[in-house]
Amino acid sequence: MYVLAGNFLQNQNWHNDPEIMKTIISFYSKAKAFESLANFYDACAQVEIDEYRDYEKALGAMKEAKRQLDKSNGVNKDIK
After folding, report:
1. Residues 66, 1, 47, CA angle at the centre, nearest 5°?
2. H or E element that contains 80
3. Which of 57, 66, 64 is nearest to 15 (CA)?
4. Around 28, how many Cα atoms within 13 Å sit in the side-chain half-sphere?
5. DSSP per position, 2-63
6. By the 8 A CB rule, do 61 and 44 touch?
7. Which has the closest alpha carbon to 6: 27, 20, 22, 37?
8. Is residue 31 scored above 50 in pLDDT?
9. CA–CA gap between residue 18 and residue 7 (Å, rounded)
10. pTM metric for this prediction
11. Fewer Cβ close by (within 10 Å): the C or N end of the chain?
C-alpha cells in the first residue's frame, strides 16, 4: 500500500513541495522499497541538475540513491 501511495505522489508536483517529497520518502521507507526509493532519489538528482543546475545537491541525492541500493542488496542477500 505504501509503495502505491509513493508512486501516486510522484505524479504530483513533488519537486516544488517539500512535504510531498518527505511523504514519498517516508512511504517507501516504511515499505522497505529501497529500489523505489533509490529511483526517487535519482529523479530528485535529475531535477536538481535540469531545473536548478545545482550539481552539489544532485550529488547528494545520488549518494543517497546508492545508499538505498546498498540497503536493497542487503535485504536481497537475507532472502536467499
Report:
1. 40
2. none
3. 57
4. 24
5. HHHHHHHHHTS-GGG-HHHHHHHHHHHHHTT-HHHHHHHHHHHHHHIIIII--HHHHHHHHH
6. yes
7. 27
8. yes
9. 16
10. 0.90
11. C
